[in-house]
């Protein structure tokens, strides 16, 4: 056997007739090697979907960032508006406070002029310290009526009450100093007496004293009442006769004063200060 005969043919070629009348088609699977120039990270078929997800998130973040910037801008504008409004309100408050202080000072000056007018022009005196008839003067929120007639304490109390007034009640040292400057050498009953039933000193219509504490009030004063002069406040039997000091609120005085001029005559029921000051 020749060497040619020893060659073994593949099984698929064995028994093949050389006659080409019965030709057979042989199929083979071909493999192509990847070129080095091609990228090893070629996208898979689902790469487009992942890229779309990333683009969507970027768009979402961009929109959110824009929305937050708009919110910050709106808040900044609101802050500036409120800040400006607060500044205007502060300026308005400062202006109103200044306006109030000016009006308050003007009112105080008018009140001082008014008190001086009533003291100097309405309540005139003789050189001897006696009044021309009945007159009154004002201090603070009260007006005082000096009656230059000698009466006991109870009679003075009744006289003041008959004219819708009361005997003098002293609230503080300033008021006392003003009253004493008006008395000269006369003595006047005031609305302080000893209550025998309660066994203590009391101001008329008020009760225990307020503001001023006198040494005589620490002891019993049965049957005694208080009077004042230009230098002191003292006590004595209520049956003694002194002049009277009545008091009334200044707004009540003005009300009665104006009513008198509306009626053009005193009908006997008006306040003490109006009916007796006929020279006004």
TrEMBL record:
Keywords: Cell adhesion, Disulfide bond, Glycoprotein, Lectin, Membrane, Receptor, Signal-anchor, Transmembrane, Transmembrane helix. It is a single-pass type II membrane protein. Residues 139-247 form the C-type lectin domain. One of its GO terms (molecular function) is carbohydrate binding. SMART domains: CLECT. PANTHER family: KILLER CELL LECTIN-LIKE RECEPTOR 2. This is Protein mago nashi homolog 2 isoform X2.
